[in-house]
Amino acid sequence: MIPELAPPGGAVVLLDGPMGTELVRRGVSLPALAWSAVALDVAPDVVADIHGEYAKAGATVHTANTFRTKRRAVGQRWDELARRAVRIARACARSGHRVAGSIAPLEDCYMPHRSPGRSSRAEHRELVRVLADEQVDLLLCETFAASQEAAIAVEEASLTGVETWVALTAGPDASLLTPHAMREAARSCVSAGARAVLVNCTPASQTLRFVEAVAGLGVPYGAYANAGDRAEGMGWAAEPGTATAIYAEFARAWVHNGATLVGGCCGTGPAHVSRLARIFNERS
Asked: What's the pLDDT band for 5 if we cut at 50, 70, 90?
């Protein structure tokens, strides 16, 4: 049975960690435009291994590698690659776990001024329909800093009838959105059909104020942050025990402030998820 989404104040639902930076860590070369989608052709076994390691670490929500399986990134084979990504994730997920289809901004996540805005609707619609056809359990519109495009993606995802979450980013230096602007974007996305709101791909050390900002919108909320600057010592280039412990302390603060959805983003990995699973399993 698929577990119900935890209500605010309930048990923590553990998401997985990043695919792209984890592929890079394992030596897979990813070109800028197609990025992680390339691995579906050149290293599908590595994609599967990463999903499997997140499942072993304790994640129960697994995001399929569809972040860049879109027409403008990979061309006419986008449909084939999106379906392959979902099937790989499904094969690696354990019984009772959920598979999420990832829907990303059409242009650079960290350049919201390049967002096509209203004209993004058709491309988001075609991807969410393919993901829904592959029977994902969730649709995750993630790493959006452009509020209008985020709401459009959420609306198109919600129209499929599949439970839809949104994850908003303030960017790698937390400067793309203020907490107030993120709250307003989150509010628009909830109105468009989002059933959970998360903060993602923002440095873990800067994430709490954004988590606080998206609270109180009537839906569960949480965060999956990136490891931040190398000097902060949270990424996979740092000593594992120290890196995961530092990240986990930031995650404790999010949960203390009502977050019930927690995972990792760029620069984290299975070891970080394993640390989160240990502390939050003990908590519950």
From this structure: very low
Q: How many domains does the chain have?
A: 1
In the chain, % of residues over pLDDT 70: 95
Q: Which of helix, strand or coil describes residue 93? A: coil
Residue 1 lies in a domain: no
How far, in Å, CA of 271 to CA of 80, rounded? 31
Query: pLDDT value at position 10?
Result: 64
CB atoms closer than 10 angstroms to residue 167: 30
For residues 113 and 104, the answer to whether their CB atoms sit within 8 Å is: no
Length of the chain equals 284
Q: Is residue 206 part of a domain?
A: yes
Beta strands in 34-144 (DSSP E): 61-63, 98-103, 138-144
pLDDT in tens, 156-169: 999 999 999 999 99
- Domain residue limits at 121: 13-283
Q: What's the half-sphere exposure (Cβ side, CA atoms, 13 Å) at 141? A: 38
3 is a domain residue: no
Q: Are 46 and 123 in contact (CB under 8 A)?
A: no
Q: Which CATH number do you get for residue 166?
A: 3.20.20.330
For 29-47, write each residue's pLDDT tens digit. 999 999 999 999 999 999 9
Give the list of residues 6+ apart from residue 117 with CB closer than 8 angstroms, or none.
Answer: 146, 148, 149, 152
> 189-212 pLDDT, tens per residue?
999 999 999 999 999 999 999 999
- Is 150:166 a contact under the CB 8 Å cutoff? yes
Question: Would you give the distance in Å from CA 27 to the centre of its chain?
Answer: 22
